């Protein structure tokens, strides 16, 4: 199940929230010792994301800034459900600017900078077994130039 809500709190502040629930269970398996109807390994039952966007008025009406938090819930790390991968909170930020405000010949062009996992949190994203776990993506910084017509 997935739900998302968009809300304008004030003239220049938008809030976007989403929640995901997955009820996955093992129906059939050939892995010895695995119980049927166990929660499915590697599948996180709960996920949550909250983002806030700020869209100021003049003189910076072409500027958008935003911050967000992502919650990734616990999941089982192996088919026998003997251990859990811990939950984690990750924080993100973005800033974008519509370049047409600077020069009319740039109308439709925009630049955007994103920073995901701002705190560079080291976390386990998934496991294949109790001896094979994988770290999630650290801090990433991206820049995007776009044009719309």
From TrEMBL:
One of its GO terms (molecular function) is siderophore uptake transmembrane transporter activity. The keyword Lipid biosynthesis does not apply. GO terms for cellular component: cell outer membrane. InterPro entries: Beta-barrel_TonB, Beta-barrel_TonB_sf, TonB-dep_rcpt-like. Pfam families: TonB_dep_Rec_b-barrel. Residues 2-118 form the TonB-dependent receptor-like beta-barrel domain. SUPFAM superfamilies: Porins (SSF56935). It is found in: Cell outer membrane. It comes from the Bacteria. It is a multi-pass membrane protein. Keywords: Cell outer membrane, Ion transport, Iron, Iron transport, Membrane, Receptor, Signal, TonB box, Transmembrane, Transmembrane beta strand, Transport. Belongs to the TonB-dependent receptor family. This is Ferrichrome-iron TonB-dependent receptor. The lineage of its organism: Bacteria, Pseudomonadati, Pseudomonadota, Gammaproteobacteria, Enterobacterales.
């Amino acid at each position: 199940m997935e739900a998302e809500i968009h809300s304008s709190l004030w003239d220049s502040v938008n809030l976007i929230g989403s929640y995901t629930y997955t009820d996955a269970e093992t129906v059939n398996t050939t892995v010895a010792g695995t119980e049927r109807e166990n929660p499915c390994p590697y599948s996180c039952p709960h996920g949550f994301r909250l983002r806030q966007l700020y869209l100021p008025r003049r003189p910076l009406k072409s500027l958008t800034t935003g911050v967000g938090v992502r919650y990734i819930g616990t999941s089982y790390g192996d088919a026998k459900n003997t251990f859990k991968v811990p939950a984690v909170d990750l924080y993100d930020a973005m800033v974008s600017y519509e370049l047409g405000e600077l020069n009319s010949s740039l109308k439709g062009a925009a630049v955007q900078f994103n920073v995901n996992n701002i705190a560079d949190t080291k976390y386990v994203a998934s496991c294949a077994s109790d001896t094979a776990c994988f770290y999630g993506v650290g801090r990433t910084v991206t820049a995007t130039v776009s044009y719309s017509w």
